[in-house]
Amino acid sequence: MARYVIGIDGGGTKTLGAIADDTGTILAQFEVGSTNHHSNPLDVVKSNLRELISTLLAKANVRAEDVACVCSGMAGVDRPDDKALVKNIMAEFLPSALAVPVNDGLIALVGGTMRAVGIIVISGTGSIAVGVNKHGVQGRAGGWGHILGDEGSGYMIGLRGLRAVCRAYDGRTGPTLLQEIVMNHFGFERPEQILGWTKQIQGNKTEIGALSRLVHQAYERGDATAAQILREEAEELALAAAAVAKKLFPDDSDYEIVVGGGNLRKARHFFEMFQAAVAKRLPGIPVILPRREPVEGAVIYALEQLRRHEAAAAGATA
Question: Which has the closest alpha carbon to 274: 220, 216, 229, 234?
């Protein structure tokens, strides 16, 4: 009997799904809106997942009962209550499938390294380092949110860029190109207007995180302040990677560190700063760009978990 798996990459703004056969060949992909239950009403999450799964089944001409496993990688799915909620939702749409809800960092790791071993360091709007060793033990560092952490993230880079403008304007530091770039970006005449903007957006993490690109622009124009911000935030990400490595790979060097998020994937200079910072703490450990996308990682992980589940079941009945 033919068996299939579904992999889901559930982001804060969009969700990508893929259905594959038991060799890992992807038969169809489809995208819907957010399925993050922390930031959306449950009926919206269910509606989007229903559309995603039914469309994948139709496009691949597969019956729901022939899906043996569904792996859903979603932000914040770490606690038992979150996992139970996602499993219950999946049971409504795919009652015969083994449901494997995991943190979205894990599927990005698997897609990036093509195996469920290694460390992924993500610098998007937020930041986190997540790892898995060859025994299946998971560990993490960061991911504490923008109030308690998010070092090395777009939010922290953007925030430090704004702070640098204020400090330079006060005369507490030397001049920086960031002042010109930030003023032009907003169309402001005076740095004091930044304060009004931050009050208007109420410190919105996404809005501030989007300003990280201005810091990257300043760096590319040779600004020393921007360079310092980026080097220090790259060091923070390397510190998180080293913390995970200490937990999971104390006597093992057979793993890679893959990067995720726009800051590390799209800004070559920041990626190279991170590489250099990792090399000082974890010499000889490769730092790579992802080989595949997270949704493909979800498919790979679904197949691996299905095989483990079946092997365990066979062992129990032997």
Answer: 234
Ramachandran area for residue 136 (φ above 0: left; ψ -120 to 50: alpha; else beta): left
Tokens at 288, concatenated: 């790579």
Residues in the chain, total: 318
pLDDT digits (tens, 9 = 90+) for 71-129: 999 876 767 888 888 899 999 999 999 999 998 888 999 999 998 899 999 998 889 99
**Residue closest to 211 by CA, chosen among 231, 229, 232:** 229
The third-level CATH classification (topology) of the domain covering 145-288 is: Nucleotidyltransferase; domain 5 (3.30.420)
CA–CA distances in Å: residue 232 to residues 189, 251, 273? 29, 28, 9
Q: What is the pLDDT of residues 260-315, one digit of tens each?
A: 988 999 999 999 999 999 999 999 999 999 999 999 999 999 998 998 888 887 77
214-236 CB burial, b ≥16 within 10 A, e <16: bbbbbbeeebebbbebbbbbbbb
For domain 4-114+292-317, give the CATH number.
3.30.420.40
Q: Strand ranges (DSSP E) for 109-173?
A: 118-123, 127-132, 138-142
Contact yes or no for 114/83 (Cβ under 8 A): no
In the numeric block, the tokens 């704004």 are attached to: 162
Q: Tell me: the pLDDT tens digits for 192-236? A: 999 999 999 888 888 999 999 999 999 999 999 999 999 999 999
Both tokens assigned to 296 = 């493909």
- Structure tokens, 188: 């402001």
What is the model's pTM? 0.82
Task: Please state the domain extents for the chain.
Answer: 4-114+292-317, 145-288
Contact present, 120 and 257 (Cβ < 8 Å): yes
Same fold across 4-114+292-317 and 145-288? yes
**Nearest residue to 257 via CA among 137, 153, 152, 122:** 122
As a whole number of angstroms, the distance between CA 88 and CA 78 comes to: 15
Closest residue by Cα to residue 104 from 37, 159, 52, 47:
37
